[in-house]
UniProtKB/TrEMBL annotation:
<protein>
    <submittedName>
        <fullName>Oxo-4-hydroxy-4-carboxy-5-ureidoimidazoline decarboxylase</fullName>
    </submittedName>
</protein>
<keyword id="KW-0175">Coiled coil</keyword>
<dbReference type="GO" id="GO:0006144">
    <property type="term" value="P:purine nucleobase metabolic process"/>
</dbReference>
<dbReference type="InterPro" id="IPR018020">
    <property type="entry name" value="OHCU_decarboxylase"/>
</dbReference>
<dbReference type="Pfam" id="PF09349">
    <property type="entry name" value="OHCU_decarbox"/>
</dbReference>
<keyword id="KW-0659">Purine metabolism</keyword>
<dbReference type="InterPro" id="IPR036778">
    <property type="entry name" value="OHCU_decarboxylase_sf"/>
</dbReference>
<feature type="coiled-coil region">
    <location>
        <begin position="102"/>
        <end position="165"/>
    </location>
</feature>
<feature type="domain" description="Oxo-4-hydroxy-4-carboxy-5-ureidoimidazoline decarboxylase">
    <location>
        <begin position="16"/>
        <end position="177"/>
    </location>
</feature>
Length: 185
C-alpha cells in the first residue's frame, strides 16, 4: 500500500496549526531546511493567509530582507537556505517533489549528464556557498544547460541570489497549486 500523498491544509487554517505542521508545510513548499524553519515559523503562526501565494510572498520578503541586509551573518543564513535545494540532475534527490520536478532532466545522453555535472561544479566554485536553483518544471536539459552557462558567465553573485530566491518562490507556488486539494463541484 503506497503512502497517501501529502496535501496542504486550507491556507486560512495555517496559523492555527502546530509547529510540526508548519514545518511540514515549509518542507513541502520549499525544501526541508532548519534555517528556513527558524526564519519563517513565527510568521506562519501569525498569518493570516487567504492563499498559499500569501504565505510564499511572506517567505519571499524574508529571504529578500536577508539578502538586502548584506551582513555576513545574514548572508550565511541565506546561503544555508539556498543550499537546501538539491543539485539539478543529481542522481539521488531526497525530496520526492524535487525528484518529480527534475524528471525532465533524467532522460538525457551521457554528454548532457556530464555537462550538467560540470556546470554544477563550475557554478558552485564561482559562487561559493550557493547552489544553482531554477524553476525546471519540465524544461529540457538543453535549456537548463544554456541558462546555467549564461548565469555562470554573468558572474554576478547578487543577481544569482535574487534569481535563486525568485526560483525558490516560483517552485513553492507551483507546489502549492499541486498540493492544494481541489474543490469538486
Amino acid at each position: 500500500m503506497s503512502p497517501t500523498p501529502f496535501k496542504l491544509p486550507p491556507a486560512h487554517t495555517v496559523p492555527t496549526l502546530s509547529t510540526r505542521k508548519h514545518i511540514e508545510i515549509l518542507s513541502a513548499l520549499f525544501e526541508p531546511c532548519p534555517a528556513l524553519n527558524t526564519l519563517a515559523l513565527e510568521y506562519l503562526a501569525a498569518g493570516p493567509f487567504e492563499s498559499y501565494d500569501d504565505l510564499v510572498g511572506i517567505v519571499y520578503g524574508l529571504l529578500a530582507d536577508l539578502n538586502g541586509s548584506k551582513t555576513p551573518k545574514n548572508t550565511e543564513w541565506l546561503l544555508k537556505i539556498l543550499a537546501a535545494h538539491p543539485r539539478l540532475g543529481a542522481k539521488k534527490i531526497e525530496s520526492e517533489l524535487s525528484a518529480e520536478e527534475q524528471a525532465s532532466l533524467a532522460a538525457a545522453n551521457a554528454e548532457e549528464e556530464e555537462a550538467l555535472k560540470r556546470l554544477n561544479d563550475e557554478y558552485e566554485k564561482k559562487f561559493p556557498g550557493m547552489r544553482y536553483i531554477a524553476f525546471v518544471n519540465g524544461r529540457s536539459r538543453q535549456i537548463i544547460i544554456k541558462d546555467m552557462e549564461k548565469r555562470i558567465s554573468r558572474w554576478d553573485s547578487e543577481a544569482e541570489k535574487e534569481e535563486a530566491i525568485q526560483a525558490m518562490c516560483d517552485i513553492a507556488r507551483d507546489r502549492a497549486n499541486k498540493l492544494t486539494p481541489q474543490k469538486t463541484v
